[in-house]
Design a protein that fits this description.
The chain has helices spanning about 15-25, 30-45, 90-95, 135-140, 165-175, 195-230, 230-245, 250-260, 265-290, 295-300, 305-315, 320-345, 355-360, 370-400, and strands spanning about 1-5, 10-15, 70-80, 100-115, 115-120, 130-135, 140-150, 150-155, 160-165, 180-185. By secondary structure, the chain is α+β, with helices and mostly antiparallel strands. A hairpin with a 2-residue loop joins strand 7 and strand 8.
Length: about 400
Amino acid sequence: MGLFFQNKTEYKVQSLSRATWGRLIRNRQGAVLLIFLALTTLIAILGYLITPDSTPYANEQILEVRLLKPLSKVTVASVKKNQQVTEHNIFYKMLFGQPNPFQPIAIDKYWFANDSIVLQRYNEVAPYNIERIHLADMVYAIKGEVQRDKNLCTFTTLEGIPMQISIDDLQHAARQQIRTRTYILGTDRYGRDVLSQLIIGTRVSLSVGFVSVFIALLIGVFLGAIAGYYRGKVDDIIMWVINVVWSIPTLLLVIAISFALGTGFWQIFIAIGLTMWVDIARVVRGQVISLREKEFVEASKSLGFRNMTIIFKHILPNIVGTIIVVVAANFASAILTEASLSFLGIGVQPPMPSWGTMIKENYGYIILDYAYLAIVPGIAIMLLVLCFMLLGNVLRDVLDVKSESN
């Protein structure tokens, strides 16, 4: 199938999908929404590669810097952990993060004392604010004791490598591990970076939307198409199931399924997907009923095509536009449902960050000076949901076959 477009005195044929995509790009609002959605998706995919805190679940806690305001700067000394930490490749790090081989310590200032470094902890009260660490322990993961011979330190690393290094070189290496961190969105009450939590929360929200909508599509399109095409008793049975599920409030049904499957990351996908299919099934059923008596369907029957071939190869491609609009609305609904469940404590479980969990942990600060801790993830939810709702409206317009093509 194609559309004819006139360009001066020439006519050219363009596929329907390509024409629709062209109208969507030329639509100013649609282009802005697509750019926003593409950037959000890119952020979710890159994940730990772009977060300031790249540890798993962005869960590095520095209690000395808890509840810092946005754009706060803190000097942090990184002390080598006395344990082996596996270095993962870039793809593993992108998906799951990389454990930090160093222990971060927030400090006000530091100075060297022979073969040791003295750290004055950030905002701590004397005498608990002073910590003395051997330079070799700060720079390397070692086993046994460090032996000093004049200006040299001799020790064995955790990997079993003997080393002899001067104190001057150790001091230089220690200085390289003292950096100033800027917390763009501040820190929460556990000393975690809020920006990192927000970025990883984007991945959770989009993942829940994609997977749950996919599950809803599989169930809803199949049942709706079967009910609309065969009618009769098959339609009555499927509609009875749809009406029963429809009569139960969505959030209560999701909570019930969550209790049955358990709480967790993957369970929330299934729970939301099993409650969203009724919207798609009702729309697909109505569209199939309106098309089942059309001439092209009668022609397919007369040519001997099987019923399933007619449904999935001839009828469904003609209602893809309607399904896409419903899917966009369901995507927004899935994001809101996941945030609601996480806020209630039966969705994504800590330490995995979620926008709903961030609001739950920080809503008590709304009446204090730290209201942004709950407002920022709330704004993120609002923007993403609004993006999908507006995108659904734009898609409805550009997929309208009666719209005039430029």
